[in-house]
Write a structure and sequence with these properties.
Blueprint (H helix, E strand, L loop, with lengths): L1 H11 L12 H11 L4 H14 L3 H5 L3 H8 L6 H16 L8 H4 L7 H12 L8 H12 L10 H10 L4 H17 L18 H4 L19 H13 L5 E2 H6 L4 H13 L4 E3 L2 E3 L1
Antiparallel strand pairs: 1-3, 2-3
Helix pairs in contact: 1-11, 2-3, 2-8, 5-6, 9-11, 13-15
């Protein structure tokens, strides 16, 4: 099955810029941070602009954190921009500007967790690592255990299952990582899987069992309208699009509920996404 999935990826894998030959480990790391909780289709433009402006960790480390937040645009979850800036600072100071290649060093960087560290080892350096995102966990759950969907968080069982499926060689493991992830993103999707187009349908226990939905975790889309996330985004966008800063009162009036606006402005200041200079707000 692993060879079949890898061959399918060679024919159907998306042409994403960070997958092209010549992409640096820094480019891969940036793409992984940007892709957290964000569809890859939305990442291509911001990633391209980011890499043109800051092609190395040293380039970003020389900037103020607010520049990273401004360049983040509307990718969402802008604290990731601050973490990526902190990560660049650590690479510049602790690793002489070179992205480390080992899992142990990578996971020690600011904002880098288990998935991101494993992804960089695999996708940037061609190393052997169990890269476990939701797509991979769903593929393995269906093929191996016959369960419709994986849980919302990576479990010990998920890790043990992924370890059993991980090929022994570095190159084969790296190819399996990207191909299984792509299979979950394009074919073995959560709601309407394209089983008729799946290259490994003959190996899938869930399909063989008639695609049972019993016990499948219920996944609900995250609310947006009227939430603190939306309010924070409105205020942050207002400041981001201003060259000279925004008056606090103007920022608070940008949202229709004053108490919520005050609370969200407070969290933006606490998170370091905005800074207050007298009555002015700046990145």
């Amino acid at each position: 099955m692993i060879a079949t999935c890898s061959a399918w990826y060679g024919e159907h894998g998306r042409d994403l810029p960070w997958r092209r030959p010549g992409t640096t480990p820094w480019g891969v790391l940036v793409s992984e941070v940007m892709s957290q909780q964000t569809p890859m289709s939305r990442v291509v433009g911001p990633w391209t602009e980011w890499m043109e402006r800051w092609p190395t960790p040293d380039d970003l480390a020389e900037e103020e954190p607010g520049a990273a937040v401004a360049a983040w645009g509307r990718l969402g979850y802008p604290r990731r921009a601050l973490r990526l800036h902190a990560c660049a600072m650590a690479i510049a100071t602790e690793f002489r500007g070179v992205v480390p290649s080992s899992y142990e060093e990578l996971i020690g960087l600011p904002g880098v967790g288990d998935y991101t560290a494993a992804a960089v080892v695999s996708f940037a350096f061609g190393g052997r690592a169990a890269v476990l995102d939701t797509n991979v966990r769903r593929v393995l759950a269906r093929v191996e255990t016959g369960v419709a969907n994986c849980g919302s968080a990576t479990s010990r069982g998920d890790r043990e299952l992924a370890a059993r499926w991980l090929p022994g060689g570095d190159a084969d493991a790296a190819r399996w990582a990207v191909s299984s992830m792509e299979l979950g993103a394009l074919v073995c999707v959560a709601r309407t899987p394209l089983c008729a187009e799946c290259p490994v349908a003959g190996h899938c226990r869930w399909l063989a069992a008639g695609r049972p939905m019993e016990g499948a975790p219920v996944r609900r889309g995250q609310a947006w309208k009227g939430t603190d996330r939306q309010c924070r985004g409105v205020i942050l966008d207002l400041v981001r699009n201003s060259d000279n800063g925004v008056e606090v009162e103007v920022a608070l009036r940008a949202w229709h509920k004053r108490p919520q606006a005050e609370k969200c402005l407070g969290t933006l200041l606490d998170d370091g996404l905005l800074h207050r200079e007298g009555s002015l707000l700046r990145l």
